[in-house]
Amino acid sequence: MSPAPPLVLTVAGSDSGGGAGIQADLKTMLALGVHGMSVLTAVTAQNSRGVHGVWELPEDAVRAQYRAVVDDIGVHAVKTGMLATAPLVETVAALLAGTPGVPVVVDPVGVSKHGDPLLAASALESVRTALLPVATVATPNLDEVTQLTGIVVEDEAGMRRAADAILAYGPRWALIKGGHLPGDAAEVVDLLTDGTEEHWLYAPRHDNRHTHGTGCTLASAVASGLAKGLPVPKAVREAKAYVTGALAAGFALGEGIGPVDHGWEHRR
C-alpha cells in the first residue's frame, strides 16, 4: 500500500455548479497532491449566472462531520470558506481552537463572484472575534477587507493599511488579494505579511472573465502547501503560481461566468 498523502480538510459550502466552494477546494487538493476531506456548512443552488438559493446546515451537523474526520483520520491543515451565519462561524471557530498545532487558512467569504451575499451581516463580528484569531493565514479580497474593517483599498499603500487592520484581529499572517484594485494594470498584486516581514506577489493579469472560484482555489492551495510542511511564504507563492495558471485557463460554462481550470497543469 502507498502511504497516505498529506490530509487537508475544507469547511465550506457546496457550489452545485462545481466552480467554487467545496467542489473547487477538493479539485485543488487533488491537483496539488493532497487528500481532501470536507465538512459541508451550507448547500447552494448555484450556476454560472449566480446563487439562486442557500440552505445552511445545523451546527450539530457541522460539528459531527468535523469530529468524524478529525478524530479518526486526522488532519494536517484546514481551510474554511463559506460559513454563512454567526452560529456556524462560532461553531467552526471553537472546533478549530480545539485542534491545536494544525494550520488554518481562513477565506472570509462574504459575497459570491456574482455579488450574491454568502455571509450574514450579523456574522461579521463573529468572524472578527472568533474565527480570525485562530487563523494561520487569512485571505480576504478587497471587498471582504471593506466588510471586515471599513477600509476601502485603492492602491498598494491601502493594502498595507488593510493588512494591519486584519492582523489586529489575530491571524498570524494576512494575505490581502489585490485583484480588485481599480485600474487596468498589467499585473495583479497581493500582499502577504505577518506585520514584520512583507512579501509582494505579482502575477500577469489575464484577459479572461471566467474567474469563478478564484478565492476558494487560492485558499485551498495555500492549505495544501501548509499540509506538506511548507513555510507560509513558500506555500503562498506556490499557491499563487497555481491559481495564476488556473485563471489563464478558465473556461466558459453556461451563460455567465465560468470557472478557473483546476486541472490546467494536467491538461497543459
From TrEMBL:
Pfam families in the cross-refs:
Phos_pyr_kin (PF08543)
What are the GO MF terms of this UniProt record?
A: hydroxymethylpyrimidine kinase activity; phosphomethylpyrimidine kinase activity
Q: Keywords of this protein's UniProt record, alphabetized? A: Kinase, Thiamine biosynthesis, Transferase
Domain named Pyridoxamine kinase/Phosphomethylpyrimidine kinase is located at 15-261
Q: Domain of life here?
A: Bacteria
Q: Does the keyword field hold Iron-sulfur?
A: no
By its UniProt entry, which SUPFAM superfamilies does this protein fall under? Answer: Ribokinase-like (SSF53613)
Enzyme nomenclature, EC number: 2.7.1.49, 2.7.4.7
Quickly give the catalysed reaction: 4-amino-5-hydroxymethyl-2-methylpyrimidine + ATP = 4-amino-2-methyl-5-(phosphooxymethyl)pyrimidine + ADP + H(+); 4-amino-2-methyl-5-(phosphooxymethyl)pyrimidine + ATP = 4-amino-2-methyl-5-(diphosphooxymethyl)pyrimidine + ADP
- To which pathway does this protein belong? Cofactor biosynthesis; thiamine diphosphate biosynthesis; 4-amino-2-methyl-5-diphosphomethylpyrimidine from 5-amino-1-(5-phospho-D-ribosyl)imidazole: step 3/3
Kindly give the CDD domains that the UniProt entry links to this protein.
Answer: HMPP_kinase
Q: State if Kinase is listed as a keyword.
A: yes
Q: Which residues cross the membrane?
A: none
PANTHER family linked: HYDROXYMETHYLPYRIMIDINE_PHOSPHOMETHYLPYRIMIDINE KINASE THI20-RELATED, PHOSPHOMETHYLPYRIMIDINE KINASE
Q: What does this protein do?
A: Catalyzes the phosphorylation of hydroxymethylpyrimidine phosphate (HMP-P) to HMP-PP, and of HMP to HMP-P.
Q: What is this protein called?
A: Bifunctional hydroxymethylpyrimidine kinase/phosphomethylpyrimidine kinase
The species is Streptomyces omiyaensis
